[in-house]
């Protein structure tokens, strides 16, 4: 009995040593987020149980059926965050490498890229705003951009998507702007529309989209010509400051497929409670963290 107790103590000591030696990889250092179970149609597998375990936890894989090795689930060149097994247990990939461990569900790796002017060498953002009350003024180098009720001020922003790898399949794209002021307590609803008319931030104003060229309707105002309807999303503005985001997934897919016709997004007030305008940081703002950002989730073939 004493020998058995000693062996048990030794096993516990070995386990404690293994836990202490396990690498603690901060989430901030993980290059890629999710490995998601999908069904045969490519949609989320609702039978999979979503759970997150502490990094020190090791799931019991004894009941896992054999279909694909864990190595088959790895995302080349990145550290994946989570692997979910058919028994409902999930674990961080770096903690769950087990020789012969298998999984009976298909998984895919979803990557994320964030595009913000001046961050990680990216310089592919153009933005400006158009002002009905100062129609000849060009605002392409300003540190703030404004949207106002009635389309009296509108925001234009576009992104070069060349940082995405060849063959990327966009799953979701989100445009985020940080607003910091408003002219009064009035509220707005602001929609995101895909721009059709070519424009240049260093030349565009209320009258012209570029040097010597006019908008179909002044202020990028031609629904169905200067921009497509309906809006991809709408945001409600009721406070002076805060972050607002719009789902522009379909737009981004179009831009990736046809970069020559990528004219970005129009942010246009579609309803209001008062004559009011809201101001956001532009891509030229000294507040780098507040600059407009496009987040794209994608997968590779």
Q: Which structural class should the secondary elements be placed in?
A: mainly beta
Mean pLDDT comes to: 76
Return the string of H and E elements.
Answer: HEEEEEEEEEEEEEEEEHEEE
Q: Spans of 5+ residues with little confidence (pLDDT < 50)?
A: 15-81, 84-107
What does this structure look like?
There is one protein chain. By secondary structure, this protein is mainly beta. The chain is built from 2 helices and 19 strands. It is globular and about 50 Å long.
Which helices and strands, and how do they pair?
Blueprint (H helix, E strand, L loop, with lengths): L1 H20 L13 E3 L30 E2 L13 E2 L5 E2 L10 E2 L3 E3 L1 E6 L8 E7 L12 E5 L4 E7 L9 E14 L5 E7 L13 E3 L2 E2 L18 E5 L4 E6 L1 H9 L7 E8 L4 E5 L11 E7 L2
Antiparallel strand pairs: 1-6, 2-5, 3-4, 7-19, 8-10, 9-18, 10-17, 11-16, 11-18, 11-19, 12-15, 12-17, 13-14
Concise structural overview:
The chain has 301 residues and is mostly beta strands. The chain has helices at residues 2-21, 249-257, and strands at 35-37, 68-69, 83-84, 90-91, 102-103, 107-109, 111-116, 125-131, 144-148, 153-159, 169-182, 188-194, 208-210, 213-214, 233-237, 242-247, 265-272, 277-281, 293-299.
């Amino acid at each position: 009995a004493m020998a058995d107790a000693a062996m048990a103590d030794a096993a516990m000591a070995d386990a404690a040593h293994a836990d202490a030696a396990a690498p603690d990889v901060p989430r901030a250092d993980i290059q890629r987020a999710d490995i998601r179970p999908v069904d045969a149609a490519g949609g989320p597998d609702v039978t999979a149980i979503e759970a997150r375990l502490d990094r020190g936890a090791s799931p019991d894989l004894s009941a896992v059926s054999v279909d694909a090795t864990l190595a088959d689930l790895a995302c080349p060149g990145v550290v994946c965050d989570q692997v979910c097994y058919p028994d409902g247990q999930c674990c961080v990939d770096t903690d769950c490498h087990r020789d012969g461990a298998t999984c009976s569900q298909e998984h895919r790796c979803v990557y994320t890229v964030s595009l913000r002017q001046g961050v990680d060498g990216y310089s592919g953002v153009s933005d400006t705003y158009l002002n009905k009350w100062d129609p000849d003024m060009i605002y392409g180098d300003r540190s703030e951009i404004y949207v106002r009720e009635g389309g009296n001020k509108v925001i234009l922003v576009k992104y070069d998507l060349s940082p995405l790898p060849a063959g990327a399949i966009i799953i979701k794209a989100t445009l985020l702007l940080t607003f910091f002021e408003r002219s009064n307590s009035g509220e707005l609803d602001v929609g995101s529309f895909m721009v059709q008319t070519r424009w240049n931030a260093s030349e565009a104003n209320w009258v012209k989209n570029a040097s010597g060229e006019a908008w179909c309707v002044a202020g990028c105002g031609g629904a169905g010509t200067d921009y497509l309807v309906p809006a991809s999303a709408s945001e409600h503005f009721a406070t002076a400051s805060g972050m607002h985001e719009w789902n522009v997934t379909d737009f981004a897919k179009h831009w990736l497929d046809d970069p020559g016709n990528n004219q970005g997004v129009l942010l246009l007030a579609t309803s209001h409670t008062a004559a009011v305008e809201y101001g956001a940081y532009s891509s030229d703002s000294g507040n780098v963290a507040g600059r407009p950002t496009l987040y794209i989730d994608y997968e590779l073939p």
